[in-house]
Sequence to fold (650 residues):
Amino acid sequence: MATIRDVAKLAGVSVATVSRVLNNNGNVHKSTKEVVQAAITTLNYRPNEIARTLYKKNSRLLGLIIPDITNPFFTELARAIEDTAHRYGYTMVLCNTDEILEKEQHYMEVLKQRQADGCLMITNEKATFLDEELGIPIVALDRPIHSHIPFIQADHYQGGKIAAQTLLQKGSTQLVHIRGPKYLDSAEARYQGFLDVVEKEKISYHIFESSFQPRNDEFLINNIFERFPEIDGVFAANDVIAVSVLKTALHRGISVPEDLQIIGYDGILFGQLFYPSITTVAQPIYQLGKQAVQMLINLIEKKETEQKICRLPVQLVERDTTRKE
Amino acid sequence: MATIRDVAKLAGVSVATVSRVLNNNGNVHKSTKEVVQAAITTLNYRPNEIARTLYKKNSRLLGLIIPDITNPFFTELARAIEDTAHRYGYTMVLCNTDEILEKEQHYMEVLKQRQADGCLMITNEKATFLDEELGIPIVALDRPIHSHIPFIQADHYQGGKIAAQTLLQKGSTQLVHIRGPKYLDSAEARYQGFLDVVEKEKISYHIFESSFQPRNDEFLINNIFERFPEIDGVFAANDVIAVSVLKTALHRGISVPEDLQIIGYDGILFGQLFYPSITTVAQPIYQLGKQAVQMLINLIEKKETEQKICRLPVQLVERDTTRKE
DNA sequence: TTGTAGGCGTTATCAC
DNA sequence: GTGATAACGCCTACAA
Fold:
C-alpha cells in the first residue's frame, strides 16, 4: 500500500501539501494540486484510515450490540442500521450478546479500544451501562437504559391497545395475551395497552408469559388451549409467538380466523409467508434503525441530541389471522 | 482514556517496560511487573487498538460481505461467523451489498483502508475479486470466486440428489424443481443433482427458475399449479420458496403431504414453525460459517491454507411436508 | 532487567 | 502557497 510519503515523493512536494489536497483544506496552487492528484491516481493511493483515526480520534466506526441477529426483529433492524451508517460514511461492527452481561461488557471494551465513535445498544442491563463510565456515546434501542441515555422505541402501549381493540372489534370475546418477559419494558407496555382496553370493556381475558424462547413456547401454548378451549382471540407479544399459536391451533383443528383470531407483533417480513398470513401490529422497524443511527451520529458530531426520547408509531397490518369486517 | 505513558509515569518506569508486561514479552522483574499491573488497574488502562494496528499492521478486524443480512440463510451464517470471529479475538464488520458491484467494491475499499486483516465474501462477481488486486486475504463462502481463492460450500449436488431421491422414495411421481438463478453455482449444482436422479429413474419432471426474490415467486408458483395440476412433489431451491409453495398449495386446497410433497433447502430455523413444518435438505450453516472463519484466520496468521476448497455434507431433515414411510 | 529513541501514516501548527 | 516537524499511542531494536 502506497503511503502519503510515496505520493509526496512522486509529486515532488511535501506530505503536508498532499494532505492538504486530500482533505481539501489549506491553500494549494491549482497546478500542484493537479500534480498531486495525478500521483494519487497512478499510485492508486488511499489514505490509511487507522493513521487518521489515531491522530483525529474519530474512527467512523459504530457498534451494534444486540442479543442475537438471528431474531428476525433484530435482523431487520440491523439491516436498517447498517444501511444508514454506511450512507453517513460509518462502518458497523456487529456484536451478539445473547443477553449475557459479560459479553456486553466485553464488546463495550472492544469498541472502546477500537476507538469506536458510538454504539447502538439493545440490552436489559440498565444499571451497568450508564453514560459516564462508557466513554463513548450510546443510543438505546427498543429497551431503555437510563434516563440520560437517548432512547428510541415504538409506541408499544399504543400497540397493545390496537391489538386488543382489533380483536374485540372483529368479534372475539374471550381473549388471551401471551406477553413477553416482565423485565422487558416493551413487553410491559404492550401488556398495559392490552389490559387497559380489556378492563375498560369488561372482557374476559387471561395473561400468560412467554420467555421469548421459541422452544419453550410450544408447551405453554398447548397448555393454554387445553385449559381454556373457549378462547377465541390471541394477542401474541411477537410474531414468532403468533406463528406458534397458529401452528398449534391448526394442529388442534381450530379454524383460523373463524374460531380463533390471532394478532402478532413486530411486523417481521416472514409473517406474510404463513397460511393464513399473520395479522400483526407492525413496528416501523426500518425507521427505528435509521433514526437510531441518526440520533447517534448527532450525538457524536454535534455532541448533543435535541430529544432524549423518540417514540415512533406502530401500525396494524391486517392479514388473514383476523376476520374481514 | 489513559495512555501507556500515564501508566509508565504512575508506575515509575518507562513505557517500554509497560509495553513488555502488556504483551508478556521481554524480561521484566517480577516486582516491577506487579507495580506496573497495579498502575494499569488503578488507571483502568486499556491499550489503544488503533495505535497497535498502526504499528503492527494487523487489526484483528474481519469483513463480512454478503448480499443481505435479511435473507435467513445469511442471517444464520452471520451469527456463526461473528461468534467464531469473536472467539478468536477478531471483530466483525457487516456489509450488505444487495449484490450490487459498486457496493461490493466500495466495501472492499473501506475494509482495506481500515486495514482489515481479511474478508469473508458472498458474491457473484467472479471476475472482479481476484486475489492480487485485493491486497487482503479473502475466503469465498457458498459462491466460488476464483480457483485460487479459498472457498467453502455445502455439497449442493448431493443435496439435489437427496431431495429428488426422497421425493421418489416417498411416492411422488410427477416432480417439479423450482431452481435458483442460473448464474448461481450453488443453484446449478442442486439442479444437476436433482436432474441426475430423475433422468436415471425416468421420472416425469418440470424445471422452473426462481429469481430468489420472494415477491416474484408467488406468480410463478400459482402458474405452475395452474398448468400442471398433476404434480405431486416439489423440490424448492430454498426454504423460503418451499414455504411459498406450501402456502399456495394450501390456499388451493391441496393437502400437504398427502397430495403434494414439498422439500425445501437450507434448513433455516424458521422452517419448523410452519404447519405443516417444512421438510428440507439442511446445510450445516453454523459449521459453514465457523470453518470459513477458521480458513480465513489460517490464511491471515499462517499465510496459507491447507485446502483451497472445502465442501461440507448436507443432511435431510424430515418434517411434515413429506410422508412418513 | 530496564530505558531511549525511532517509526507506523496521518494531520496540523508553525515558519518561510 | 509550501515545507519542516511535532504530535497521536504503541512497539521494538538497540543501548546501557
The longest strand of chain A covers residues 61-66. Chain A touches chain B through 50 residues (CB under 8 Å).
